[in-house]
Protein 1
Amino acid sequence: MVDRNLIREFQVDDAELDAALGGELGEWLIEEDEKMDRIYDKTSSPFDVNEIVHGKVLSVEGDEVLVDIGYKSEGMVPLYEWAEDEDKPNVGDTIEVLLEEIEDDFGLVLLSKRKADRQKDWDWVVSRYSEGDTIIGMVVRKIKGGLLVNIGETLSATGARGVNVFLPASQVDIRRPQDIGEFVGNEIECMILKVDDARKNIVVSRRRLIEEQRAEMKRKLLAEIEDGQIRKGVVKNIADFGAFVDLGGIDGLLHITDMSWGRINHPTEMVQIDDEIEVMILNVDREKEKIALGLKQKFPSPWENVETKYPVGSRVNGEVVNVMTYGAFVKLEDGIEGLVHISEMSWTKRLNHPNEMVSIGQEVEVVVLGINTDKQEISLGMKQTQPNPWDNVTEKYPEGKSVNGVVRNLTNYGAFIELEEGVDGLLHVSDMSWTRKISHASEMLKKGDEIECIVVSVDEERKRIALGLKQMSDDPWEARIPDQYQPGSIVKGSVTKITNFGVFVELEEELEGLLHVSEVTGGDEEKTVEDVVKVGDEIEVKILRVDTGDRKIGLSMKLDAEIEPEEGTASATAGEPGTKELKGGMGDSSGPLFSLKSAQEEEAAEQSSEEESSTPEE
């Protein structure tokens, strides 16, 4: 019989063979060949593709292993299909291989030992495990989207044997680790999520297994945990406000305020991730499954007997640990801090911020001012360690004493005069001049001026000193002004201001008198004040009345006006509703002739006077 497969191997086609052997002989040979094939097929055992069969190693030559599986042709298996940790094949060994193809183009049988091993491993896995079962595997390597895990009868770190399954990155742990590659080379326990027999794919989850285990542990833990217990746990996560500690099935919160009796800026100063620590159970909320933990509660509170250790009034040394806009916190010992308010830092310095006096880390001496044990607060003072410049201030600045000072600040109600460092006095606008109307202290003074004043009054308890500038000279209203401006005398003056109720006339520097509207227009209702005088005009006026009590002078442009005798010490305010009719700038009531008002008051007076009218008396 002619072996056509052998002839084909030497690349001799049927046409050339027929030509060489002759047509009839060729046909006979073909017919005989087909008969022999049928006989061989009947006598040989049936082989199915993708079936695992047993074979005998005939030879090992180079990188090829010749294997006889009992078929009409032998098969070749590459030597590299034997893993590094496996024994290499020897002639005569019986091995299992997968029949990939019965006869290829060259008439050879295609075999694979590696695929046979994988099929056996796959059959072993699916025969023992199904979806939802737990299995142990070896992490082979990190791949896109997760990890490759080897499972099977024998685990392989290289993945050469067993079944390589997929562990998604999201299923590696409850909290996704920063680098899942750290699991490579380790054995892990997983739960089978999905088995695809057709594609021979398996997806597993370590997270699902941990969650189910933790759920059972949580149930047991919540059933036995109580407030006040000491438990061990592992730090799993750290935030700015505290750390989460795994107690075994459930996480508890260890707040930063419960870590130490002393001050800490961040939880990492006390604990690190994966630290195993002992904590006290502070509170258990079984409905919300929340547990509050404490570290400092395992030790006695330093606030016990704090009033004995730091009695009020005692002097102690401490370290500045924090500086805020309102003051500085001073540590007296670990766990005990007191606040020095900005107002308690200096008797003399005017501080805009505490850092002008102290800085973090500085050692300072303080006095204990007060203790609140309920709120665990201590009030401290720094200035109390120095003499108070207000002590005996009455003796240093008695009433009536002439003092020198520097203008430190100006307001609409007065000026603050620094008499010495830490001691200020107030010079009110009403005590700046006997005669001048002052609406703001800046009209008389400016910052930095050195002035001499008289001490008017001292309130040592309230730390206030009243000063006077006008008291440096005699009151001109007591003698000079009444003598110089006798009623009936005619004087010259300059118009400084026009209002709807009259005209202010400056008689001398800082001294004004009032011309009532009736004393300007002469009772002519068709005329207005502006028709007669303007600001800056120099006019002659007659003194109608000098009111020393209210320090006002009534004037008239009617130089021939008669002077009426005074009835009382003060005349009615010009244009004031409800008063009797004014006559020649003098009323017959005892009210004031006019008042030196603020700008707002004058505007209100002007509005109200528009509704009033007065008839001058000839």
Protein 2
Amino acid sequence: MFTPDNFTIDGVNRCGRMFLAFVLLAGCFPAVSLAQATAITPPDGGRDVVSFGPDQEIEFRSQNVVADANWIETADMPFATAYSIKSDTRFSAPENMRLRIPIDGSVSKGDVVLISFWMRRPGAGGQPNNAYFFVDADSNSTSYQYNLSAYREWVQHVRSFVAKSDFDTAESCLRIQLGEAGTQVQIADLRLINYGPDRDIATLPKSTIMYKGREEDAAWRTQALARIEKIRKGDLTITVVDADGNPLPNARVHVAMQKHAFGFGNAVNSEVLGAAESDFPINPKKKIIVTWDEAQKYRQVVKKYFDRVTFESELRPHVWKGLKSDNAPSRRKYDLFFNKTLPWLLENNISVRGHYIAWAPMDFNAIEKQFVGDPEAHRSWLWQHMRDVLPATSHFVSEWDTINHIIGWGKHTYEKEYGGPEIYAEIMAEARRLAPDATHAINEGKVLPDGYKREPYKEIIRYLNEQGQPADIVGFMAHFGLASLTPPEELLKVYDEFGEIAPKLQLSEFDVDAGDDEALQADYFRDVMIASFSHPNFVAIVQWGFWEKMHWKPAAALWREDWSIKPAGEVFVDLVANQWWTDETTKTDDEGTCHVRGFLGDYQVHVQSGAQSATATVTLPRRGNQIRIQLTN
């Protein structure tokens, strides 16, 4: 019998226990557990059309980086050897390192082909890096492309496709681009199997992941949904009277929610939001062209589903400095930002989060890296930046990521450069002095996924509390990937722990990258939303992108490039605009009263009795509210 516990990898790290299982989906093939180091074995009936092993010649090429490749032995895995590529560069263009493996068997148009391989990035951090697999029918035609995130752990990938054309026996190959995969990547047990034209592709296995708590009847989810009903709703009492103050029975009352009390936000691009039609098509990011029609859809989504935004770059120190420069491109961007984008947001009642004031890891931040070894010069620069940006943005920024990546990484964090954490309390104090009406947050990653920064993050939160400079909001960079789908019950436990020392929590950079497994992305996205919304300390969920074309991780988007909605997008819309939204019509009783239990937020109440009508606005807090509406005409 299938249960999630049958397919669990039980790995222990410093922050707790990870429960992930890499299984297959298809027909009646049995699922397997990697805890037993058992591979997903493709079924019989096909022909291997690629040779991959130490006895075969593999073509490896590199450019713009120093890299080499060789075969190595492995242990405790379902394969004895792996192809290992090492580079001197952490991150470069995908094509800077590439493999070419000839396809030495025939493939015809319509054939069903399965690809299976294992991959890992040994010694890597928790963040995934990208790899790109192309099955080329000839030098000018790609029959199948598979993009994936490669992690530090061995993960088996199994996918199938239908050949789009006949393969050229001299030029067809499996081409792999690894320039973004990091300094070391290993590939093992790579197979390309042709099952011919008569095989039903639905019967072939496909790898996916089961995380603990994904099952439909999970107890944690039932409890969380019940908690949402209790803590995210309030009772609204509406009394309707006539011109003389007498109760009006049987009056029609429409209670329509206008805005959540809880925050739902996203990261946006200023130019796509604010540029005029005459400016399009625009190029807001390298190699990305956005049309006017696409920008209109982009704005519609922002307006309909989000009450706050974080700009991807406009308020970062180096970009802010550029906006103030006296040259034509800078003046255009400044005018666009201040005179087009911001007014549009304010007009639509969408607030702005500033990202960011201070960035603690100085090693990878060019504008601050110059101050390594000279904390006094850095302090002078940072204090000047705060004096510049905070007053200038006070009329539109309601919340700041005041210290971003406060734990950070590398050899030169603020704490190391200044000789202690005092600098963080001093930054919070100065930011509050210059922007007293704003909310000041701190932000860090590797707390929810991976988890190795949980204890250091708690330590700095306690320190700021003790110094009288507590963070108004504690933010989590919730970038989840295939190997970091922290079980929802564990998330709730972490929320409880942080809630003891921080009254307000939020997801400040939320996304789920599950590669091409859209069902997995949708399920985990749903469960993180439910777990977070159900926790009493949470005040907001801010995502880091929504449209594939403008998303830093395209696979994590909610809407595809053509604006068709993905399953995860359907989950988001259903939760925020349906399940967690109140729009109810009822009638008053004999006492002229009716009661509605709704989600906390702002409402418009419209009352109709015969030819008489009236509309009123009301805010519904958790303690509930009452409103009396008098019909006078």
